[in-house]
Specification:
Order of helices and strands: EEEEEEEEEE
Number of domains: 1
Number of strands: 10
CATH topology: Jelly Rolls
Helix content: under 10%
Number of helices: 0
Radius of gyration: 15 Å
Structural class: mainly beta
CATH architecture: Sandwich
CATH class: Mainly Beta
Oligomer: single chain
Strand content: over 45%
Distance between the termini: 19 Å
Largest sheet: 6 strands, antiparallel
Amino acid sequence: MARDANLVLQALVTKTATFNGAALTLPGGTPRRGLKARVIYKNATNASGSNSVTFSLDVSYDGGSTWISNLFQAKAITLSTTAQQDELFIPFEISPTSVTNGTKIRLTATVAGAGSTPTIDYQGDIVPTRP
């Protein structure tokens, strides 16, 4: 599927711990039906123990000074020794409190648990919500 480079939340990256992506400005918020953050992940594994990864969108209404964490969240991915891959969508709808400040969003991957060597490759972008 084609992607608009201006709507990329996260280029392909490999992470082993919690990570906040770069902020993307949505000056006018989202359209009336909202948008979806699409996350494509692969090689999601855990050497041993129990770990999970949860993808979420953080929102800043003041241009990036203050963040509301996990405002929109996907179901947790339970890691195992067998590599997993999938695509998930996080629907969201936001309205700016001030067009001057610019509403910002960022994709966050939260790694939790007590396992060893959690690893996940992922990328994220914004796609329209279909009626």
